Amino acid sequence: MSASKVKSKGICYLAGAGPGDIGLVTLRLREVMEMADVVVYDALCNPEILKWAPSGAEIIYAGKRAARHALKQEETNALLVEKTKEGKRVVRLKGGDPFVFGRGGEEALELVRAGLRFEVIPGISSTVAAGAYAGIPVTHREHTSQLTIFTGHEDPTKPESKLDYDQLAKNPGTKVMLMGVERIGIIAAELVKHGARADLPVALVRWGTTGRQQTITGTLADIAAKVEAAGFKAPAVAIIGDVVKLRESLNWFETRPLFGKRIVVTRTRKQAGALSSRLRELGADVIELPTIRIEPPTDKLAMAEMVRDAHGYDWLVFTSPNGVDAFFEAFYKVYKDAREIGGVRIAAIGPATAAKVREYRLTVELQPEEFVAEAVVKEFQKDGSVDNLRILIARAQEARDVLPEALTKLGAIVDVVAVYRTVPETEDVSGAIARFREEGADMVTFTSSSTAENFMALKLPLTPNFKTASIGPITSATMRRLGLKVDAEAKQYDIPGLVEAILAYFTGTL
Description:
Helix content is about 35%, strand content about 20%. The chain is α/β, with parallel strands linked by helices. Strand 20 (about 445), helix 16 (about 450-455) and strand 21 form a beta-alpha-beta unit.
């Protein structure tokens, strides 16, 4: 397209969101999401991708499910043209790949006709990904070197099917059908009618690559009956061919220890990733439902003054990674050089907090083995007398007073600075609350007292088999006060310890 024909500075990114596993999206997709003005997304996109959009971005749902369309295709085309003409960066987020039965080509042509810029960002298609996660390679030298892809969901305006069943049946190799699980009986029967083997293996993979993945296998002769008996619904991919037999040996994803377990992560949106990724690696279906977010403290002036004078203390104590980040964000607004922190020694509760301090190229000189405030006091006592030592504790605004009170009793001169506060999360960009209401969960995780308090404040329906996991005894005490039973508690009070406790609970080794 020549520059003279372009009518707007806007651009539309026709982007593939991949098959569902958020780890399978491209770096380019994340880049454009982070600078988007408008995001138009489909039903099969992982909603966690939406959290990468800037807070002010316009998020528009244009999903299609069977006969239920949020927007008709013509309306979606017009919307993309309209928003791009306004000079905006528009991300058209499509499940899988935009050009593999994704109607991305139609949307691209509309943008061309309007003289607008666009870019295509390919995505991994469920055509190959669903089979891969079900242990079925769509090609294999000993079985087939040919792959045929077709859709079982045709244009409803067509008077008759355009599928050439005769050719499909006679084509050697693997056949992959996208969409059309509700027509699997008709399609299987037509393939057999036109010459395909009735005993040809078939696999249907639902919600492929995600923790919700379900797979059923059969043959062209019996797959329809099995689908009906299992109540198997869309979205699903059908894989037809002898490669399906390899699933018996190659089923790697569905054998993970937490596969089939739906686990809720209530940490802040920014912090959820570490816990979520560990749980997903173990096969869990993770719902990120942040109940809190981090905000600056109420008294910003007091914080600025205490951070400015931190170099005058003997010790600086951090109780969480959030505190470290908030402290140094304020510190570098005053100072340009880390050496301005002077000779203050640093103490940290927990390895994650210590690791965060080290990210700022500073040394942690005191770190207790237990990750609670009480252990810090004991560690200080081991280090010698704290009498008349000046200690600054950088922490959350609503934290417990155990540590400052105990150090004061030992003779230290203690100041406390609130460098951040936790407030209830009010946004639900990914629709996690609605999904929890509809599907429930096997377990909800809590990483602080505030996550538990704010989760309960949502007043969500809790099923009888509802289980919980706590990061440590302080959080557990809050949970019990709120009427929650603690089913699993981390022995090591950090994210790896919490994951170990969850794994032990579900594998029966707790």
